[in-house]
Design a protein that fits this description.
With 778 residues, this protein is α/β, with parallel strands linked by helices. The protein contains 23 helices and 32 strands. Among the domains are: 2-90, Alpha-Beta Plaits, CATH 3.30.70; 190-361, DHBP synthase (Alpha-Beta Complex); 550-615.
């Protein structure tokens, strides 16, 4: 029987070779009609022919789709056969909407076919760094607006030559309707210049840049989403020089290596890590340093792992092939606290004191986008940062049907923004820490881009953190007034748990007990939270447990200098001030910049109670132990003392030390995890000269067991079968594995993050979801 079908496909179906795929599939089924891009990032397909062939065609849209395509829905409307089409075509894009939201395609790492084109002498793309096809190359970073067509990208400045035009129009070619294609005749160009902008006359600027890197120079490299700073990995002096120039004394640098076999010479690569490294997203993957690690110890000082990625553009591919180094430092091109540089002019102005040379090109970066970072913990890939390759693909909301439009602005650190429309929550790319007008402007522009691209219209609710002093809180108030929207402030740790519930898709009728562990969140009692047991039930979040409040002498100073945090905790358990003073002088004097004078000042501060704040933060407790063990005395980047303490502990095998963080239950069942008793127990071992690495491992396990015990107790009392783990410390492998083991012993289900970071990079999802929950449970 002959008939007609109008098909609307939503998902990641623009910029991924979907239309050429549909064209070939329709031809193979003998169908007539057309396919076109829609203004909402979806695809419309109209086909006529035998109904059975159309049914098979629709089934194969899902079964045989391009590897980088993601289909959220396929809607089919059957119509009478008209016979109006002769053959099948790719029609001109439409600005109309199908009513089903799709998404902007993320950037896609270079495919193997394009790599072969670049590396094969005689092919017209030989050594051409911008080579791409319908299934690979930049997408999000070059797009101005939807639908995704060349004229609405920064490739519109590069008209196709006759050769590229012929491929673009050839249905049998993999570059058929590939909007980013180009070649040396018609595409972007690269050049090398010195820090004054003076052009270095060279026919092969990438090869020359690689040689300069091998000689010890530092190069700014313009990529697809911003600038990287590239340098040698095998020369301590070069790495230290970069640290000094970059004002980054300890924070680890990401590195890029040419292939998996080379990575295996200095890092341990498991099956899951290899799959991630080689995926089309090409994230940075945190790998354990191998026993024969030979790169500079200053790349990731004090850490057991190192962030590694494979080349994801022709630029990186050629640079790595021309270098003699096993890997190159490839860190973001910016100073701390500033967004990554994207334009040539800004790079020459802002990076000239960091780098010696600039490797530039003339394609505009429309949307800044930093690299994504993933860590494998307990055989689970967990985002540290979700950005290039993933953003702005949405998180599907499967457990609610939100009827309001929500904009969420995140917190203050590791920020992403979020736009909730119907069943999709679109997260921006990684913004970073909001500590200046440039980063705030970046956040606003990124959210505006999403609103405009998806034609969101009137926003109903603006959501932000509960903290009154956050820059994002002030931004949210301004936006709510400007957009005539409701303002909703939500507690930080509640939003963490909400983000986990949102991505997990479990029914919101199910109670969930959350273990939320991080460095800081403004609490309902105005104290600093960070080690919380939270119950979600019937739309309400309630705190039902915590780590003991511990004093923070000097407030923020105790977060920067963890020996201060240690002093506060020791003050709680030491009966004699002179004993406390003697212990700090003999064991921790290096943790105080002004030595004995500072120790006396901090003790005096604790006695008086002046400027002494209190926190239940797990991060601060780990910081204190890090200082006690001499692992880290100053935090120069977020999470540094705790991260280094985990690495210190990871170096120890299984142990027999008996440590406990007692869980005390109040009459109403509220759980208090006694970190003071844990510290007492630790000090007894510490003064008896036990193996400190084994003791550090035992501390992590004791904390994990205590958190699990408290959560399991709440679950038992409330009938919850799900326990969720969220917050920045939820990536800690020792704590995560302990909690997982204890929870599964009780036949409960442990929920962990898989789609967004458990830290503040996923907070905006939770904030937006809480607004939807409020509406749902009204």
């Amino acid at each position: 029987m002959l008939c007609k079908a109008i098909i609307h496909v939503s998902g990641i179906v623009q910029g991924v070779g979907f239309r050429p795929f549909v064209y070939r599939l329709a031809i193979s089924h003998g169908l007539n009609g057309y396919v076109l891009n829609m203004g909402d990032a979806g695809v419309e397909i109209v086909v006529e022919g035998d109904k059975e062939e159309i049914v098979n065609f629709v089934r194969e849209l899902e079964e045989k789709k391009p590897p980088t395509a993601v289909i959220h829905s396929i809607k089919v409307a059957w119509k009478p056969y008209s016979g109006e089409f002769q053959g099948f075509s790719i029609a001109k894009s439409s600005f109309k909407s199908s009513g089903s939201l799709s998404t902007i395609p993320p950037d896609v790492g270079i495919c193997n076919a394009c790599i072969q084109d670049i590396l094969t002498p005689g092919r017209r793309w030989y050594n051409y760094p911008f080579t791409c096809c319908a299934t690979c190359g930049p997408r999000f970073t070059i797009i101005y607006s939807l639908p995704y067509d060349r004229e609405r990208t920064s490739m519109n400045e590069f008209p196709l030559c006759s050769d590229c035009r012929a491929e673009y129009e050839d249905p049998t070619n993999r570059r058929y309707h590939a909007e980013g294609i180009c070649c040396p005749k018609c595409g972007p160009k690269m050049w090398l210049c010195d820090k004054s902008g003076e052009l270095i006359d060279d026919l092969n600027p990438i090869d020359t840049a690689a040689k300069l890197i091998d000689e010890g120079y530092i190069i700014a490299v313009k990529g697809i989403g911003g600038f990287h700073i590239a340098a040698k990995t095998t020369d301590d002096d070069v790495v230290l020089k970069l640290r000094q120039r970059r004002r980054r004394p300890q924070q680890p640098f990401a590195i890029m290596s040419p292939d998996i076999s080379t990575i295996k010479t200095f890092a341990i690569v498991g099956e899951m890590e290899e799959k991630l490294l080689s995926s089309y997203q090409r994230p940075i993957v945190l790998l354990r340093k191998s026993p024969n690690y030979y790169l500079s110890k200053y790349i990731a000082p004090g850490l057991h792992n190192i962030g590694v990625m494979l080349p994801y553009t022709g630029i990186h591919l050629l640079l790595l092939r021309s270098s003699r180094e096993p890997a190159l430092i490839m860190t973001s091109g910016n100073y701390p606290g500033e967004p990554m540089v994207t334009s040539n002019e800004a790079a020459l102005k802002r990076l000239r004191n960091i780098v010696d040379y600039f490797l530039l090109h003339n394609r505009k970066i429309v949307n800044r986008c930093d690299d994504s970072v993933i860590r494998i913990s307990c055989n689970t890939p967990i985002f540290i940062r979700r950005s290039r390759g993933y953003a702005p693909a949405p998180i599907m909301i499967k457990n609610l049907e939100p009827k309001i439009k929500v904009l969420a602005v995140g917190a203050e650190l590791q920020v992403t923004g979020a736009l909730l429309l119907k069943d999709k929550c679109f997260l921006t790319q990684h913004i970073g820490d909001i500590n200046g007008p440039e980063s705030l402007n970046f956040l606003e522009k990124s959210m505006s881009f999403l609103i405009n691209c998806f034609k969101a219209g009137k926003i109903d609710v603006i959501v932000c953190d509960l903290h009154p002093g956050f820059t994002t809180t002030r931004l949210a108030r301004h936006l709510a007034e400007q957009l005539n929207a409701e303002l909703l402030q939500v507690q930080h740790h509640f939003a963490h748990l909400a983000s986990l519930i949102a991505e997990s898709g479990i029914p919101v009728s199910e109670p969930v007990v959350g273990i939320v562990i991080d460095g800081y969140g403004y609490g309902l009692d105005r104290r600093a939270w960070g080690g919380e047991i939270v119950l979600f039930k019937d739309g309400v979040f309630e705190r039902l447990g915590q780590l003991t409040y511990q004093p923070m002498p000097g407030g923020d100073a105790a977060t920067r200098y963890p020996a201060r945090m240690l002093t506060g905790m020791l003050y709680r358990i030491t009966s004699s001030i002179s004993e406390l003073r003697d212990f700090l002088i003999s064991k921790c004097i290096a943790g105080f910049k002004r030595g004995i004078l500072e120790i006396d000042a901090v003790i005096k501060q604790l006695i008086s109670g002046f400027n002494v704040h209190f926190t239940s933060s797990l991060g601060r407790v780990l910081d204190a132990f890090s200082a006690l063990f001499g692992v880290c005395y100053e935090r120069t980047y977020e999470g540094e003392p705790a991260m280094k303490f985990e690495s210190f502990a990871m170096a120890s095998p299984a142990h027999s030390l008996k440590l406990e963080a007692p869980v005390n239950f109040e009459s109403n069942g509220y759980a208090i995890i006694d970190t003071s008793s844990l510290l007492k127990n630790v000090i007894e071992y510490y003064i008896n000269n036990v193996d400190l690495r084994a003791l550090a491992r035992a501390i992590h396990i004791a904390l994990g067991k205590a958190l699990a015990e408290a959560a399991i107790s709440v679950a038992k009392a409330t009938g919850a079968k799900y326990i969720g783990l969220s917050g920045g410390a939820a990536v800690n492998e020792l704590i995560l594995s302990t909690i997982k083991r204890e929870v599964e012993k009780k036949n409960l289900v442990l929920l962990v993050h898989r789609l967004v970071p458990p830290g503040d990079g996923g907070l905006a999802l939770g904030q937006a979801f809480m607004a939807a929950l409020n509406e749902h449970f009204k």
